[in-house]
Amino acid sequence: MEETISLREIMEVLRKNLWIIIASMCLCAAATFGYLQFFVTPQYEAVSQVLITQNAQDQNSAVQNSEIQANIQMVNTYSVVIKSPRILKSAAQEIGPQMSLEALAGKVSVDSVQNSQVINIHVVDANPDEAIRMVRIVTKHFLKETPSMMKISNVELLADAYTSQKISPNIKVGMLAGMFAGLVIGVVIGFARRIFDERFKKEEEIVARLQIPVIGTIGNITSTETASHEDNAARRRKKK
Questions:
Q1: Which residue ranges form the domains of the chain, and what is each CATH number?
Q2: Is residue 64 a contact partner of residue 190, using CB atoms and an 8 Å limit?
Q3: By the 8 A CB rule, do 132 and 107 touch?
Q4: How do residues 198-207 score in pLDDT, each as one tens digit?
Q5: How far apart are CA 30 and CA 26, in angstroms?
């Protein structure tokens, strides 16, 4: 039989199952914190910057502007060159025999500052010092190989990597996600209890489900009334 739940009943279900919802949120948040803290390896990122310089010697502003626009368009090309096997293979060999070309490619990412001639080279690793060392090596080989590869020498180091920062896991975001998941789970459990609870709570439910009229009701018997009835029965037995 199809059954609908009113807004008042929804609020009542949430109120009665509030402790389940709160416990579920706390449990999921604690589980998420424990997982991120003890089972997820932290990752650190080091960044170096490369500048696409200007080759034109002419001081004419129109020539300079066209050269700058051409250099900005070349940024995408250089971004691909940085992750090319020619650059990463020689960098991986210098990093160490345990570093393969594929592994290094998975650690390196490249982006550029919008409408600028600056390229950012990122390296992510579980060891913060290794992240710094690897990004320096990749940047060095890019600056070394580019002149002979591109037949041009308009790249130079803008900022070398000296520090690295932790980028994952984000404990705060993870715990918020865990609390939200716990909220959803708690609400689902609350409504599941309501749906699968077959007990009658109102007279209207009896009429709606069983299609029979209610001919009478029995009120709740309190403990005081029960004790009073027992005392009366005891006095009657004594009189006999």
A1: 14-37+172-222 (no CATH), 41-56+66-168 (3.30.70.1130)
A2: no
A3: no
A4: 776 666 666 6
A5: 6
